[in-house]
Amino acid sequence: MADLAAALKDEIRRLAKKEVKSQVGKTKQAAAQHRREIAALKRQVTEQQRRIKFLEEQERKRVEEQPSADDMPENFRYSARSVKAQRDRLGFSARDYARLIGVSQLTIYNWEQGKSRPRAAQMAALAAVRGIGKREAAAKLELLDKGNGNG
Predict the structure, then answer these.
(1) pLDDT per residue over 87-142, tens digit each?
(2) DSSP per position, 2-39
(3) Which of 1, 9, 15, 60 has its CA 20 to 30 A from that of 83?
(4) What is the pLDDT of residues 2-29, one digit of tens each?
(5) Distance separating alpha carbons of residues 22 and 79, to the nearest angstrom
(6) CA–CA distances in Å: residue 9 to residues 6, 22, 47
(7) Is 86 helix (H, G, I), strand (E, B) or coil?
(8) 28: Cα within 13 Å, side-chain hemisphere
(9) Is residue 82 helix, strand or coil?
(10) What's the predicted TM-score (pTM) here?
């Protein structure tokens, strides 16, 4: 009778080990697959971050390039009302608009009041801003903030 009990225990132990091994094997395979997928995603994130950094640098360089008087369109006309209208169209405060153009808030105020006129380089900056929309202007302002450490 003792031999029968021992044989039964051995058989139960063998079957239990076999069942555990099959379940653990599936889990190991799933874990290995997840690790491979995570590694691939990490590589993708790294590549995307590299591309974003490159594009931000390119855009920052483009934004920081001060337009010269030669870049100004031939038919560009200046008026105090047009500066105010452009600023209102973009929905910017005088402070934000001034940062976008590359001048001070007071300069924007004086231009809008007709107390002063922009210089040639400033006219080129006004002409460059005149051709952009709200989203692009906001993006440029954000890049300027990041470049100055304000963002």
Answers:
(1) 898 999 989 999 988 899 999 999 889 888 888 888 888 888 887 888 888 888 88
(2) HHHHHHHHHHHHHHHHHHHHHHHHHHHHHHHHHHHHHH
(3) 60
(4) 788 888 999 999 999 999 888 888 889 9
(5) 81
(6) 5, 20, 57
(7) helix
(8) 6
(9) helix
(10) 0.52
